Hints:
Elements: E1 13-16, H1 17-28, E2 34-39, H2 46-57, E3 61-65, H3 73-79, H4 93-105, E4 110-117, E5 122-131, E6 136-141, E7 160-164, H5 168-181, H6 186-205, E8 213-218
Parallel strand pairs: 1-8, 2-6, 2-7, 3-6, 7-8
Antiparallel strand pairs: 4-5
Amino acid sequence: MPVTPGPGGPGPTAVTLEGLVSRAAALADRGTRTLLGVVGAPGAGKSTLCEVLGERLGDRVVVVGMDGYHLDNEVLVALGRRDRKGAPDTFDVDGFVSLLRRLRAAEEETTYAARFDRSLELAIGSAVPVRRTVPLVVVEGNYLLCDDGGWERVRPLLDETWYLDVPDDERVRRLVARRVSHGDDPDAARRWVHGVDESNATVVVATRDRADHLLHLVTDPRRDDGV
């Protein structure tokens, strides 16, 4: 995989899916527990890429999502933040950081992470088992590179970070389609995406230069898989 220059360097490097799979496999072969962060604004294709890595690397990798640490809807209502779900201050950051420290130490036979169920819009606790023998943990999330609100503790716990760079119009199209597929009325989906998701995207995009690799994923034009 081509290596993107460090912060402040030129724009994203074009890479193929095969290139990313090869790089992830190399990280899994390091011989020690490695944490790889996959970052991008909402709709950038993080989840789809992580699914592919999981399929291709098999038992050498486990994917852990930041979204598993969403605060519960009832908690968000009590805090007055339900209509901002997905913003940086609507997560259990302390819990997420504690999980990453445990994963990095790899001292437990099995460490259990939470998983976010999009169909329910809820986090499911202890749903993702990570065995001590798994060499690569892929950590997916929007805010892994943020430097405030408690998120600044995340980046030092990751061995390498990839930022997926996608044109805004394509991201918005994907986000609206996702919400509609989960039952939202198209107008309601567009209102949420433009009012909430894009506000969060602004925060994420501002962190892109902190990634080790700034990437534009080149896919087969005959496919529309959201990667």
